[in-house]
Amino acid sequence: MQKKLLIIEDEKSVAKQLRWGLNKEYEITIAADAEKAIPFLASGIFPVATLDLGLPPYPDTPEQGFKLLEKIAVLAPHTKVIVITGNAEENNAIKAIGLGATDFCAKPLDLTVLKIILARTFQIHALEEANRHPITSQCGSLAGMLGISPAIKKVFKRLEHASKTDYPVLITGNTGTGKELAAQAVHTLSSRNKNKLVTINCGAIPENLLESELFGHEKGAFTGATSRKTGKFEQADQGTIFLDEIGELPLPLQVKLLRVLQESTIERLGGTNTIQLDVRILAATNINLEQAAREGLFREDLFYRLNVIPLTIPDLKERPEDILLLAHNFLQEESQNLGRGQLSFSPSALMALTSHHWPGNVRELQNRIRRALGTTLDKVITPTDLGFEERALSASQRNQKLSTLKEARETAEENVVRQALTLCNNNISQAAKLLETSRPTLHDLIKKHAINISQ
Ligand SMILES: Nc1ncnc2c1ncn2[C@@H]1O[C@H](COP(=O)(O)OP(=O)(O)OP(=O)(O)O)[C@@H](O)[C@H]1O
Ligand SMILES: [Mg+2]
């Protein structure tokens, strides 16, 4: 995998030159100003960033660059920053180093020199990383799952613990919360990651085919079984099987699955051999299995067997701190896939994103961003592109009391304060700095929104 490099540079020609010169060695992300850089930095996934000190709105002075450097020290303390300065600005470079930059490189850029500095800086980062406690769950991502909210960090912690064991994990959560991604993360972080993760969606396969899909069949086991076929369990031997939508598993197959769990063996359909397997079992569902068990729709004994480690992924609205981080990441990812360059959200789009209640969770967020890129060729994404205004004008909503703008502002304000506090581990001074406000104002906002900062 290529190393990730964040380039914070407003001059398009320089950004282009850097991308061209460095994209063989590094996976490059470009942010054209401080505002766009912040979510990337907060994601914690960039070991190294280059920072042009002269950023908008005052590209001729280093002030914006210095400000951002101070924020990086709070937001992404492990990210190493190489400052890009004008040739005759040694003093600025020295001040930048004083503010925490690792090194500097003068403009006009000499790529050979920059490459040497980059290689060394990545090396320093790697060494420091190896020395740090390997607590991945404190970063903004875990094996592909992004998040900075306290709620998702709890999930990361459980997930890390789960991955160190071989017990079954039952992943629950509403639609689109990230259950499948969580299952992939458990496998990736486990010692089985050199072997396969085999996924089967129990709800998507007709009942009469599901048994053979799971356990395989011998030649002639049924009409049409013209050759022997290995099932998903056998394919997952030494690895992990992920039984998605386990609540849809028909009762007769629940009995068979229970036996597999008890005995770690399977028999192919129409076969007589018992095959010993070593498979780790993960399952997911968006229905309440315990209740289904009480109603006789799901075997209680199987539920307990699967639910050894329960892992619940919270709804997106319960982790508002993650919304903008995910939104910026999806936007960047999609625009890169489509070769659309650097895109951003308008302020009202940001407000709409933070005040929406997300019934479809992360998947809805991802779809809205895809939809926006399919709707507009503009560089700035508006609420309409994200499909918000039509909702606002829907008949049912028009009948609701019209306090929405004020409410939306309040929600957005609360979310942004919560997000800053989370990023700064509830350190008021740092959070105030990040929000570019004073400590007393931040205290007032905390009081106003009844935010608990004691934990
Ligand atoms: N924390 C996250 N970070 C990054 N991407 C995420 C995160 N959570 C979910 N996604 C993305 O959102 C989409 C939906 O996630 P996923 O398919 O894992 O959800 P699910 O709970 O299995 O949904 P469903 O109930 O519909 O099966 C995927 O594209 C996934 O990559
Ligand atoms: Mg799923």
Topology (SSEs and partners):
Elements: E1 3-8, H1 12-22, E2 26-31, H2 34-42, E3 48-52, H3 63-75, E4 80-85, H4 90-98, E5 103-106, H5 111-131, E6 141-142, E7 145-146, H6 150-163, E8 169-172, H7 179-189, E9 197-201, H8 207-215, E10 216-217, E11 229-230, H9 232-235, E12 240-244, H10 251-263, E13 265-266, E14 275-276, E15 280-285, H11 289-294, H12 300-306, E16 309-312, H13 323-337, E17 344-345, H14 347-355, H15 361-375, E18 380-381, H16 388-392, H17 395-398, H18 404-423, H19 428-434, H20 439-448
Parallel strand pairs: 1-2, 1-3, 3-4, 4-5, 8-15, 8-16, 9-12, 12-15, 17-18
Antiparallel strand pairs: 6-7, 10-11, 13-14
Helix pairs in contact: 2-3, 2-13, 6-7, 13-15, 14-18, 18-19, 19-20
The structure holds adenosine-5'-triphosphate (ATP) and magnesium ion.
Q: Give the domain tally.
A: 3
Going by CATH, what is the homologous superfamily of the largest domain?
A: P-loop containing nucleotide triphosphate hydrolases
Percentage beta strand: 5-15%
CATH structural architecture of the largest domain: 3-Layer(aba) Sandwich
Q: Which percent range fits the helix content?
A: 40-55%
Structural class: alpha/beta
Largest sheet geometry? 5 strands, parallel
State the CATH class of the largest domain.
Alpha Beta
Reported by name, the CATH topology of the largest domain is: Rossmann fold
Between the first and last Cα atoms, what is the distance in angstroms? Answer: 37 Å
Task: State the helix count.
Answer: 20
Overall pLDDT metric: 87
Bound molecules: adenosine-5'-triphosphate, magnesium ion
Number of E strands:
18
The neighbouring-strand order within the major sheet is: 2-1-3-4-5
Rg result: 26 Å
Principal-axes geometry comes out as elongated
* Poorly predicted parts: 133-139, 390-402
